[in-house]
Design brief:
alpha+beta, Ribosomal Protein S5, domain 2, nine-stranded mixed β-sheet, five-stranded mixed β-sheet, 22 strands, 21% strand
Length: 657
């Protein structure tokens, strides 16, 4: 029963009335998804989305993002510029109103912007609120105008800076520095931004997007993305390391939606897809140029229509016999790379971060475009159509084999109790968010880990040898691998479409391999498996990589462990550390070739003790790019992998393994 006598007071003073900008600073997760590295980059995306909206309105064709020192960012576009005159209703400059008042914008009535990604009037004002410094410059009405802010509060009036030069373009230039008293201290990652803006340029074709990194000296890094082909080019890019069964199928239509008792409106639909010789399925969905990672009505419409068209065509051409059951989505979507993009005047998203599109009418619009264009393609191209149907038939046969193999794995706990379980799982006494399982390379390392662990919350699963390369194998072959079956049974989640993250028995799944070439290969094979068949494990933040030491240095009673540092080879790491000693020649150096060489207490102290260890969390910032890289490195096509190795071999100098 509640202790009412000791309950905290609740009275008039308990109620707070926060101003919108104060609320953003207090609850940034509601507006930009958190305070971590992903949220930091989301600040840039929110500002760039405004420039993209200008492009969608036909007023902008050039966007430049510049990274400066000290985490300063500038986003510039050649649109018409934010209006700066005094707003009749509010009595202040429209620029100040846009930058400091939540719920302000020109995207609500569909007049200035027929379609846009910014819907709530929150984006740029939220970035302003979460910035220690923000400067907004507007090039319009014959002048350059400017206003500055701190934490979303104006620190100057809107004022003229100078007249526009003859022929000088109009537009908006936004410069800001994130407020690291709220955001986690991180640096903007050039590679993450490259992937995002490449994606944006594919979806908003004929718009030039430039990313410039002035932190790199003496010559700044710069990439410009411009694509005439739109989604068709995007599909070709994603399938660069795969063999397509046909040319990408592309369609673009405007579909009229006529809801009851409301004015009709148009929804723009563009889509492109291609079947490949792999079993990998890649799907991307965009709404008003914004990636919706959780899909929604547009992706549902694409999937269902593709399945329906293939079934109709296969029946019509007698490729599916009367006694055969229809193809399911599992069969028709294997090996497909598909992208759908819709432009809607009133999109409904699941949240401010726009992870899922909810408009039900979009499903029908996308289905209509797919049905018309795909059926036409199949009828005009019978040879390619037969290849697609044959791939679906192969997938159907393989799924039956996989289902039988899955049924054996689904027995779950009984397998864990079996004395024949590969790897001999050494389980922990408790399970749940605080528990963790180490997937360890080899019995020797497994023995040290079992002796050194905390049995209360740490489980150990040693693997024998290298697991199957799951990038090149169908699911039935994957499930026939003993080491993979052991992992599935130990984690308790199931696999692929049977995967349920809520059934995970451990809060952290930790890959722990030797610091050598074989260890790196095993780690890559495991990452490939988790990415392809247990991707929610990564998305929900459960997968980690242990960081064991490479060297142990001892001089007298002083002991130091050396860990790998990105961009530094082992010789540099060792020499830098030895130079700190007065008598480097008297330092005893041990190079750990494998985890099994470490005593259990050393393994605990350096790699497994939560108070001293370092874990790398595996994340997916860009699922499409991760998909492409895994396919290149682990797929069957050799030339792309060879080119990658030749390109990056110069970065590996004197690697002592």
């Amino acid at each position: 029963m509640a202790d009412r006598a000791n309950a905290p007071a609740y009275n008039e003073e308990s109620i707070q009335a926060l101003k919108p900008m104060e609320h953003i600073r207090l609850r940034p997760g509601m507006y930009v998804g958190g305070t971590d590295l992903r949220a930091l980059h989301h600040l840039i995306y929110e500002v760039v989305d405004n420039a993209i909206d200008e492009a969608l309105a036909g007023r902008c064709d050039r966007i430049t993002i510049t990274l400066h020192d000290d985490n300063m960012v500038t986003v510039a576009d050649n649109g018409v510029g934010i209006p700066v005159g005094v707003h009749k209703k509010e009595g202040i400059s429209t620029l100040q109103m846009v930058m400091t008042q939540v719920g302000t914008g020109a995207k609500f009535d569909g007049q200035a912007y027929k379609v846009s990604g910014g819907l709530h009037g929150v984006g740029v004002s939220a970035v302003n609120a979460l910035s220690s410094y923000f400067r907004s410059q507007v090039y319009r009405d014959g002048f350059v105008w400017e206003q500055t802010y701190a934490a979303g509060v104006p620190t100057s009036d809107v004022h003229k800076v100078r007249p526009l030069e003859p022929g000088e373009a109009t537009g908006t230039v936004q410069t800001f520095v994130p407020d690291f008293t709220i955001m986690d201290k991180n640096e903007f990652d050039y590679d993450i931004l490259v992937k995002r803006f490449r994606e944006m340029a594919f979806v908003t074709r004929k718009v030039s997007i430039t990313l410039r990194d002035e932190r790199v000296r003496p010559i700044p890094k710069e990439r410009t993305f411009y694509f005439e082909g739109g989604l068709r080019s995007f599909v070709r890019y994603l399938n660069g390391n795969r063999v397509g069964l046909h040319e990408p199928i592309h369609a673009e239509r405007d579909i009229e939606i006529a809801p009851e008792e409301k004015e009709p409106f148009m929804v723009g639909v563009e889509l492109a897809f291609q079947y490949t010789d792999t079993s990998t399925r890649t799907e991307l969905a965009f709404a008003n140029t914004i990636l919706t990672p959780d899909g929604g009505a547009h992706l549902t419409g694409l999937r269902s229509a593709i399945t329906s068209v293939i079934n109709r065509y296969a029946r019509k051409e007698n490729l599916l016999k009367e006694k055969d059951g229809n193809f399911s989505g599992e069969h028709t979507l294997e090996g497909i790379t598909a992208i759908v993009s819709v432009k809607h005047p009133q999109p409904q998203f699941e949240s401010q971060t726009k992870v899922k599109l909810l408009n039900p009418e979009v499903q029908g619009a996308v289905s209509q475009v797919v049905s018309e264009s795909f059926m036409e393609f199949l009828e005009v191209n019978p040879r390619e159509a037969r290849r697609i149907v044959e791939k679906c038939l192969t997938s159907k046969r393989a799924s039956e084999a996989a289902r039988k193999a899955r049924d054996l794995v689904r027995s779950g706990p009984s397998l864990l109790e079996s004395s024949t379980l590969p790897g001999k799982l050494a389980d922990c006494s408790s399970h749940g968010p605080e528990a963790e399982i180490y997937i360890v390379e080899g019995d020797s390392a497994g023995g040290s880990a079992k002796q050194g662990r905390d049995r209360h919350f740490q489980a150990i699963l040693p693997l024998r040898g290298k697991i199957l390369n799951t990038e090149r194998a169908r699911l039935d072959k994957v499930l026939d691998n003993n080491e993979i079956k052991a992992m599935i049974s130990a984690l308790g989640t199931g696999i692929s479409e049977d995967f349920r993250v809520e059934r995970l028995r451990y809060g952290r799944v930790i890959i722990m391999t030797d610091a050598d070439v074989d260890g790196s290969h095993i780690r890559t094979l495991l990452l490939t498996f988790f990415f392809r068949h247990m991707q929610p494990l990564i998305q929900e933040g459960h997968l980690y990589i242990a960081q064991p030491p490479i060297y142990r240095l001892q001089q007298g009673k002083n002991i130091e462990y050396l860990y790998a540092i990105a961009g530094m080879n082992e010789a540099e790491l060792l020499n830098r550390s030895l130079n700190k000693y007065n008598s480097p020649d008297k330092v005893r150096v041990n190079r750990y070739k494998g985890l099994g060489e470490m005593n259990p207490d050393q393994l605990w102290e350096t790699t497994m003790d939560p108070s001293t260890r370092t874990l790398l969390q595996v994340t997916i910032e860009d699922a499409a790019e991760a998909d492409r890289v895994f396919d290149m490195l682990m797929g069957s096509s050799v030339p792309p992998r060879k080119r990658f190795i030749q390109t990056h071999a110069k970065n590996v100098r004197n690697l002592d393994v």
